[in-house]
Amino acid sequence: GAVVSQHPSWVICKSGTSVKIECRSLDFQATTMFWYRQFPKQSLMLMATSNEGSKATYEQGVEKDKFLINHASLTLSTLTVTSAHPEDSSFYICSARGGLAGSSYEQYFGPGTRLTVT
Amino acid sequence: SQQGEEDPQALSIQEGENATMNCSYKTSINNLQWYRQNSGRGLVHLILIRSNEREKHSGRLRVTLDTSKKSSSLLITASRAADTASYFCAVSGSARQLTFGSGTQLTVLP
Q1: Is residue A109 within 8 Å of A42, Cβ to Cβ?
Q2: Contacts of B40 in chain A (CB under 8 A)
Q3: For A67-79, what is each residue's pLDDT tens digit?
Q4: How far apart, in whole angstroms, are the C-alpha atoms of residue A61 and residue A69?
Q5: Which residues of chain A does B48 touch, with a Cβ-Cβ cutoff of 8 Å?
């Protein structure tokens, strides 16, 4: 099946710094990528949806200036957590889908990135 | 929100027993999917059932879907210790986005 990678798999940063997480589709072109956040023992919550070459669509309650998403190519999307604070510590998971939003193509999930802000 | 609700929240069974998890959702869907997540790891796609299907099998997994009740169930037969994980249902609606349920933590005791 299709493979999605994330880098780094875990990161520890100091409060106030910015962290960039990469999500790559390794063997297919992902026109749509999704970013999720998962707190311990909770479900995945969708943060934003991005289509290649256009601005991301953020879910209600997600600060777009704090969570910068760039989807500049068909195989790479990045999530930058700006001015990170301890409450941003979480497990961030991306997923990628081939085809345009509205297609029935399957979503493939990355392995996740554990962010810890001290 | 059409986020799924799952029950039970936690389930503990003996190896060899069957495990059943249920998922309910609120609005119309195109398909419903089940995922497994081992602690601290990413998601593993288990099975997808479309809105016009009622039952689907994959190995030891059996999924049912009742669109009139807006509910689905996942049955794992002859469970193994390696099945210990969190299981999530996720519904895909008109926007083709996946919305996840609250999850069931399954523990299979050897």
Answers
A1: no
A2: 91, 112, 114
A3: 999 988 889 999 9
A4: 15
A5: 106
